[in-house]
Amino acid sequence: MTSSKADLVSLDSFRLKPVNRLLAGVPLYIQIAEGLLNWVDSGRLAPGDRLPPERDLSQMLGVNRMTLRRALEMLEAQGLLARRQGAGTYIADRKIERQAGQLVSFTKRMREQGFTPGAKVISFEERPCGAALAAALRLPAFAPIYDIRRLRFLNGQPVLLEHYTLSIVRFAHLGRHDLEQHSLYEVLHKHYGVDVHRARLSLEAVLATAYESEQLLVPLSAPLMLERRLSYDALGAPVDHGEDHYRGDRFQFVTETAALAL
Hints:
It is a single chain. By secondary structure, this protein is an alpha+beta fold. α1 packs across α3 (65-77) and α2 packs across α3. It has two domains: 5-91, Arc Repressor Mutant, subunit A (Orthogonal Bundle); 96-254, Chorismate lyase-like (Chorismate lyase, 3-Layer(aba) Sandwich), CATH 3.40.1410.10. 25% of the residues lie in helices and 31% in strands. The strands form three sheets. The protein has a six-stranded antiparallel β-sheet with strand order 4-5-6-9-8-7. Strands 1-2 form a two-stranded antiparallel ribbon. The N and C termini lie far apart (48 Å).
């Protein structure tokens, strides 16, 4: 996303639907936000476009700057706008779709969407597992496990922080394999003869801690999506337990449902 003057949306062409002050029950700032969203959805505002200054935009819409700022802050919190100090407010890059109900290689899926994926192992430790994790992985109490944290990139930008654990006894010498060039499941398939056939997934909206903020290059308390995962092999034995943090400004989780059962 650039900050050149050429990216500035012209006020002559920037015309939102007038704010309807009589629209009962819908605050003005929400009407403004929805108007901007409609422009993005229609393609009239594109990623990288810079919005007019707040003063000009508030005058055009006939609202005060506080109301306008509230609308912009709401869209920024949703990852739809990006503000740069001294450069203005931009339409953010479109979010990447992540299929919530599918087990698909991150690297494969991102390449299919035209991105260049990358990875960096932040930590690779061996430790005894606690009671809850031992129960989930069906291991004896305090059994030795790998505790691995890995940062994933798209076109050089950090977008996903992975944290997964698995049995040292079952996957001995895992540290010999390059987890920056190969996916974990690819290594398990090729070197251990283990394939993941299903997984139990849960999704939860969370706020970035200081650690996650530092790794993902997002502000403290920025919105993230936490995906907890427990995967199983063909025989129903647990393979790994994962907790992955996706940047909320880059991903949206989608799923398809069957017809309503009556």
